[in-house]
Specification:
alpha/beta, Rossmann fold, 8-stranded mixed beta sheet, 14 helices, globular
């Protein structure tokens, strides 16, 4: 009897996931056809004076190369620097900051062009992000830190370990991007951009045309348990996507993504203690992507998190937090 219920649950889960994937595919066609009618207006960047998802955190800003960067810091001890992914923000670390800050000094920042940080109209290359991270560390007085990065943030972290190894203590790479990101990415929304990347202006228009529903579907691609994408979470990410200048940042980052390939042959040079954490049901970068990187970095460890997708630290925080703490205490 129990096995029958289990099979039915899995069948329903599979049907639900298939329905979501179909919606995602249709979303891109609809967004192009209706773009002229649904074109959204951007909103000015207004930084919060209070972080709703964790009022205990104090919002802070710092000037880095003339641009205002938004971040939070909590705890005392060895520094941990948390780096979010493409288009995201500090909020993806909401389930780590309080736990990790009990033993460490935790910095979580909005990358340049993201979250509540400035969005200058500059080329958003891999070097832009890596040099920005180094300059941020200089600005807040961090000489050396453990870098914890998710998705693109993980890619920035391993690139930092290659280009500025003296600034990195350890690496914790959570479903991180590989050097050949455009060939390895598997989710429908990003594959669509890859397919049209050489058509003038069309990728920019696709990104600019994203509305609340398309942001919801992108979030659904990031998790296995789609019930986690509540209206509150959707509104949080949708607001960030509407801030003036966001379209340029995402478009420029996408257009320069292939440049990370030049670091591909240097990943084996990373000597820092490294832990890969990967959601077993990551539909954006499947676990094989992480396993391949793990085999390249000498002495690295690889942990697969069950029942989790592309942002396991947010979807399954208990397992991920324990893995992070255990690794840091080794």
């Amino acid at each position: 009897m129990d096995s029958c219920f289990c099979r039915n649950d899995k069948k329903r889960e599979g049907q639900l996931r298939k329905w979501v994937e179909t919606l995602i595919q249709l979303r891109w066609i609809v967004s192009v056809l209706l773009m002229l009618f649904l074109w959204r207006r951007s909103v000015p960047l207004v930084r919060p004076t209070r972080i709703d998802w964790n009022p205990s955190l104090s919002p802070q800003t710092i000037q880095i190369n003339g641009h205002t960067i938004f971040y939070t810091v909590k705890g005392e001890g060895e520094p941990l620097l948390m780096i979010h992914g493409y288009g995201a923000g500090i909020w993806v670390w909401e389930k780590q900051i309080d736990i990790l800050s009990q033993s460490y000094r935790v910095y979580a920042l909005d990358l340049i062009g993201h979250g509540f940080s400035d969005r200058p109209k500059i080329p958003y290359t891999s070097e832009t992000y890596v040099h920005f991270l180094r300059d941020f560390m200089d600005g807040v007085g961090i000489e050396k830190a453990t870098l914890i990065g998710n998705s693109m943030g993980g890619g920035i972290a391993w690139a930092m370990a290659i280009l500025f190894p003296e600034r990195v203590d350890r690496l914790i790479l959570i479903d991180c991007v590989p050097p050949d990101v455009l060939n390895q990415v598997k989710n429908e929304s990003f594959r669509t951009l890859v397919a049209i990347k050489d058509i003038p202006i069309l990728p920019y228009l696709i990104i600019a045309g994203r509305n609340k529903n398309s942001i919801r579907l992108i979030l659904l691609e990031c998790v296995l348990d789609i019930k986690l994408i509540t209206p509150e979470v959707l509104n949080r990410q949708y607001h960030l996507s509407k801030i003036k200048g966001t379209t340029w940042v995402l478009y420029s980052t996408f257009k320069h993504a292939k440049e990370a390939l030049k670091l591909k042959d240097q990943i084996f040079l990373i000597q820092h203690p490294s832990l890969f954490i990967w959601g077993e049901r990551d539909f954006i970068f499947p676990p094989q992507v992480g396993e391949t990187l793990h085999q390249i970095i000498p002495g690295s460890k690889f942990l697969k998190i069950e029942k989790s997708g592309h942002i396991p630290m947010w979807e399954t925080p208990n397992e991920v937090n324990q893995a992070i703490l255990s690794f840091l205490q080794e």
